[in-house]
Amino acid sequence: MDLVTRISENFSESAHLKLQAMDALAGPIAAAAERMVQCLKQDGKILSCGNGGSAADSQHFAAEMLNRFEMERPGLAAMALTTDTSTITSIANDYDYEQVFSKQVRALGHAGDLLLAISTSGNSRNVVAAAHAAHESQMGVIALTGRNGGKLAEVLLPADIHICVPAQSTARIQEVHLLTLHCLCDAIDCLLLGVE
Fold first, then answer.
1. Interval 61-90: pLDDT, tens
2. What is the fold of 3-193?
3. Domain limits, the chain
4. Which of 10, 26, 62, 126 has a Cα at 20 to 30 A from 35?
């Protein structure tokens, strides 16, 4: 297979999955945006975490909240737990890598805050541990996963929101995660600014 054909197939698979997932994910994304706005209006904050590409997504979301998305507005309280290498490496060294997010959630999270937990498989132990820590701190969890949601889906409480991409490929799941994050940012702006 030549590269142009392979690249075209990647585009096609990505577009097909996004259209296929639209009906299943639009409702949970809207519910998550409403929860986030409710949290922010009550002076809460959104903590986000993930590993690898999901760490980058976590940071991307926090940047769009703190700075701006597509419209001018004041910064919104969001923080990626993936950015402080001194904190992450000290926790991993002194305790265990599984605790790199949960210890931060316990220290920084308060009742009424939200955790945006991102894991393509849903089986990232440190993300699952962060969800447990969020529940202990009386925080809600918005889980962004793929496949069958993995262990993260199993620890969610009825009030939590699960956005699960119906796909197996990590690359395709991450592509829908990025679209989901942009949809969240857009919906948050619409709810806060009254945009049609």
1. 999 999 999 999 999 999 999 999 999 999
2. Rossmann fold (3.40.50)
3. 3-193
4. 126
